[in-house]
Amino acid sequence: xxxxxxxxxxxxxxxxxxxxxxxxxxxxxxxxxxxxxxxxxxxxxxxxxxxxxxxxxxxxxxxxxxxxxxxxxxxxxxxxxxxxxxxxxxxxxxxxxxxxxxxxxxxxxxxxxxxxxxxxxxxxxxxxxxxxxxxxxxxxxxxxxxxxxxxxxxxxxxxxxxxxxxxxxxxxxxxxxxxxxxxxxxxxxxxxxxxxxxxxxxxxxxxxxxxxxxxxxxxxxxxxxxxxxxxxxxxxxxxxxxxxxxxxxxxxxxxxxxxxxxxxxxxxxxxxxxxxxxxxxxxxxxxxxxxxxxxxxxxxxxxxxxxxxxxxxxxxxxxxxx
Amino acid sequence: xxxxxxxxxxxxxxxxxxxxxxxxxxxxxxxxxxxxxxxxxxxxxxxxxxxxxxxxxxxxxxxxxxxxxxxxxxxxxxxxxxxxxxxxxxxxxxxxxxxxxxxxxxxxxxxxxxxxxxxxxxxxxxxxxxxxxxxxxxxxxxxxxxxxxxxxxxxxxxxxxxxxxxxxxxxxxxxxxxxxxxxxxxxxxxxxxxxxxxxxxxxxxxxxxxxxxxxxxxxxxxxxxxxxxxxxxxxxxxxxxxxxxxxxxxxxxxxxxxxxxxxxxxxxxxxxxxxxxxxxxxxxxxxxxxxxxxxxxxxxxxxxxxxxxxxxxxxxxxxxxx
Lengths: 322, 322
Hints:
The structure is a homodimer.
Chain A: H1 3-18, E1 26-28, E2 35-37, E3 43-52, H2 64-80, E4 85-95, H3 101-117, E5 121-129, E6 135-144, E7 158-162, H4 167-178, H5 190-199, E8 212-217, H6 222-233, E9 236-240, H7 248-257, H8 261-267, E10 274-278, E11 287-293, E12 298-302, E13 305-309, E14 319-321
Parallel strand pairs in A: 4-5, 9-12
Antiparallel strand pairs in A: 1-2, 2-3, 3-6, 4-6, 7-10, 7-11, 8-10, 9-11, 12-13
């Protein structure tokens, strides 16, 4: 059977079955943003992300510094999605001949810039030559007093998003269209804002997690990531299209390009914003976009017109953390 | 500057300088087999290894099961090299279209076989599609009561090797020559023994570490790995060629092929045997092949004829853990 037939999430479930562990100390394993392990000094989180040239990035429109920044950012986002604080980063690099020393120095300048921001320590890794393009793999550990898994959503919980959605997908669209690198984001025009959101996303943790029942970071796109929470929690969701947060910059850029910003916000992916459910009504910092329902389906409410989505309907085999 | 000009170990030193951490809890960072971090519940070890198709393995002469076995084995070897016990394994896979579901099932059968042997739990990872061949990255954590770094060797210490050297390199030579997969190793002829040592190395920990001052696993080849210990410990070494442990199987196979087994044992690499220094004379389980000297050079003693090696002389840019 080809992998495209069972899909990525089908594969992850298969792997999870093969590796089902009886470890008593394992809190969440394969199938969440990060693995979590019980530990005498608080829960240990581990997440790993691979970035492959031509699949995840294109050196014709990202600088090495931007790439390094994003590389650590997406790992930090996974730790935040578990309610954790990042700690140690281990890097593996597969280096093709074309990579120069100054490229690696630039890459590390980007990694170090965001590492400093979030107090992450780079402690080791592996370098090797590659005949297959430039490949990066990062593993980030973290700590959490209380793990927030994907699986805790309950009927009646509100669904919240922290930050605007769709900018990154629009940024990627522009980068692909023009195929050029951007070296400075100043002055920050709407175009440069969405491009920066794609090239250098900066994750933001939840400051306050009381009442939060489940969480994920939006990397595959809002609807897919809502479906991950629903799958793991065995519930459904109603999403109100008109409540989905879209930035002013995205509205401006999409208006000019004749693109519906909501499609990007719902399906674009690589937003690295937190999506979570809460049993309390939150007043600040996050936007309520829907609620959890009992029936295992996802309903998108567009000004009162409801349509149900089958989770299988928007599965892809692209990239996903488990 | 091209990376080949500064070499892999030069690059690792550069990276180490860029990331020099003031973390008080960091015991050993970039430049050892695994990173080690102080922790209330014993020292936490983290190691990461990337394997890239065509660079590290060739699907024309390894099965997926053998690949999975080796993939975890080389990570376990890094944890053993720090004096640790492996615990949790996180896997990232970059999957090209040609990979089938049964390939992944076989891969996990190999990973699970060795995981069971050493009580390693597979807890998570990342899957993504790859346009660049099959790529695996594994991150393994471990615990150690007492870390054994590369940097503790002192003048007068004996240099020891646990297990025979060179078999893996000869196995690779045979696999490349015949370009075929081996599906069974029974009956275990000398040829199949060296091929198995290449495809499915099984690391063996040191049972007894009292008096052990430094340790590394032999992945780059005996002489390079001796030089890593010497570099980090700021000492030199004398290696007695005639004391280097060579298996009977290797002697038989190299005799027939007209190859000097000592060259494979000294420079072959991928042995995944432990190389360590000890201030005590050990009686069992390991072979004494030389001693640490004050002067920072490596001398190979061939039946009384001595030759000095410059560490730069045998550096490559192939693969190495740091």
